[in-house]
Amino acid sequence: MESAARAELAAFQNHGGRAAAIGRHALGVDAVLPDNEAGGHALAQHLMDLGHRRIAVAAGSAGLTTVADRLAGVSSALRERGRPTTDLAVVHTDFTRGGGRAAAEQILNDHPGTTAIIALNDVMAMGVLSTLRSRRVPVPARMSVVGFDDVSVAADLAPSLTTIRLPMTEMGRTALTLALKPRTTRPRRRPTGHLLVVRDSTGPAPIT
């Protein structure tokens, strides 16, 4: 599928079209690269700093580069602390609110000792929080939850969501700037930054 898109974009550019993408890919066009791996690393580090050792991940489809990169960051943080990544429970569902609900149900049923859930986007995190409310699991007293992206409602959730903020507006502006520049021999890459935003959905690991 990506090879077909690459061929179409190449033809488009050869006829004078200009293109740029956001995200890691093999499309042969300029790209803005979100700080996905570093953001995943920061989330896992934050939770481990709070004492969490039994961490699970509510992940989207394994075929998405966004999921792969964010999960790679989580895994690298564990390895830096000398913890095997086999300790990490990863549940792949849809990259949606419903997927977050389903992932949280599976985590609670199959990994009952979990004390923190990393949702790989904020929409999934909303689904996770919904399931925890319905199962009467207090956040963050019993379970900490984090998301990724810092969507506009993240601060208004109850509890407000700890997440990674990406510079969305700047990313779009940079992609447009790249698309308007003359084409180069090799595709240009522009990385972004990220910011860990700590809110009420994370707290110290419960004492067991």
What do these coordinates show?
- This protein has 208 residues and is α/β, with parallel strands linked by helices.
- Helices cover 40% and strands 15% of the residues.
- The chain has 6 helices and 9 strands.
- It has helices spanning 2-14, 36-49, 65-80, 97-110, 122-134, 168-180, and strands at 20-22, 30-33, 55-59, 89-92, 116-119, 144-146, 163-165, 189-191, 195-197.
- The strands form 3 sheets. A 4-stranded parallel β-sheet has the order 4-3-5-6, sandwiched between helices. Strands 1-2-8 form a 3-stranded parallel β-sheet, covered by helices on one side.
- Helix 2 packs across helix 3 (65-80) and helix 4 (97-110) crosses helix 5 (122-134).
- The protein is elongated and about 65 Å long.
- It starts with a helix and ends in an 11-residue tail after the last strand.
Question: For the report, how would you describe the main beta sheet?
Answer: 4 strands, parallel
Overall number of strands: 9
Distance between the terminal alpha carbons, to the nearest Å? 48 Å
Strand residue content: 15-25%
Provide the gyration radius in Å.
19 Å
Mean pLDDT across residues: 92
User: Given the structure, what is the number of helices?
Assistant: 6
Shape: elongated
Q: Which structural class do you get from the secondary structure elements?
A: alpha/beta
Low-confidence stretches: none
The main sheet orders its strands as 4-3-5-6
Order of helices and strands: HEEHEHEHEHEEHEE
Share of helical residues: 25-40%
